[in-house]
Amino acid sequence: MTSHRPRWKGRGPGVPRGLVPVLAAAAILLSACTGPTALPDSGTPGAPPSPTKDGPLRVAVISHGTAGDAFWNVVKNGAETAGEELGVQVEYNSDGDPGNQAKLVDNAVAQGVGGLVVSMANPEALKPSIDAAVRANIPVITINSGEDKSAEYGAITHIGQNEGIAGENAGRKFAELGKKKLLCVVHEAGNVGQAQRCEGARTGFGGQVETLQVDISNPTDAQSRIRGAVQTDGSIDAVLTLNSQVAANAVNAIGQVGSAAEVATFDLNTDVVAAIKSDQVLFAVDQQQYEQGYLPIVFLKLNRDNANVVGGGRPVLTGPDLIEKSNVDEVGQYVDRGTR
């Protein structure tokens, strides 16, 4: 943002000519006497350095995503774009293993970052590390997962979709389409958010709901398990996947056995957009994860520079938004550029 200051074209009225150099000299002397602003004391020897308001804000964004994951790439894009726009140094790291993710948080705390953004798919595993950040006076914002534990752990805000509400919307949409039996496919064991999605779908659907556990890191096995489920139970007429990659496995599995089941999914990528256009996927629950990367950087910048907090103790929701045949063309262009 450009700063506009008045440009003085002369001494101005009422300022004697001989007084101008005197005032300038006084200003220089005052500056010399004041000296540089002291940095905050880091506290106990050996403790992590305390965050400072001097210089650019440095924020560590640490997710439970895996390298190259299309979903988390959009989160990263949002965080880095906000950093570029606001002059914030953003350092993005991720690890799907809860223990390794906790170590990344510990490293960020030890380095004295000015803010921490973390997704909590496994809150208990991350609690000691987040506690350490809070003790070090590092403001924490949680994103995506862990809404229920965010405030308890000391985070100033949680940003993401409410998994239960999102699941209810998906289940309700299936019911409106006349489906009778729903299969909800969980792809990460121990991920509390995925369990909440399926429970929400059960509430919104109102009919029969079964869950199936697969491993996202083994797509061949995931596809085989989905194929086995719809082949064994021909009454399954709806399949809800919780990840865009798994949606492709479900579409393939259903096609292999000629099942009448139809697929919907959480999250968007270019393949899901194409599948909606070709009627292979009914709809996608879009949690608009670009906002989950972008907004925390804005909020942490405001917190440091203006002591602002957002949400009033409640989460800031980024979704859900249902993407279907009627609006997929409009949204698809943003998926192509990496912001949806």
UniProtKB/TrEMBL annotation:
Subcellular compartments: Cell envelope
Gene Ontology CC, one term: outer membrane-bounded periplasmic space
Family: Belongs to the bacterial solute-binding protein 2 family.
InterPro entries attached to this UniProt entry: Bact_Solute-Bind_Prot2 (IPR050555), Peripla_BP_I (IPR028082), SBP_2_dom (IPR025997)
Protein name: Sugar ABC transporter substrate-binding protein
Taxonomic source organism: Amycolatopsis antarctica
Organism superkingdom: Bacteria
PANTHER family registered for this protein in UniProt: ABC TRANSPORTER PERIPLASMIC-BINDING PROTEIN YPHF, D-XYLOSE-BINDING PERIPLASMIC PROTEIN
GO MF, one annotated term: carbohydrate binding
Main localisation: other
Segments forming domain Periplasmic binding protein: 60-298
Pfam families for this protein: Peripla_BP_4
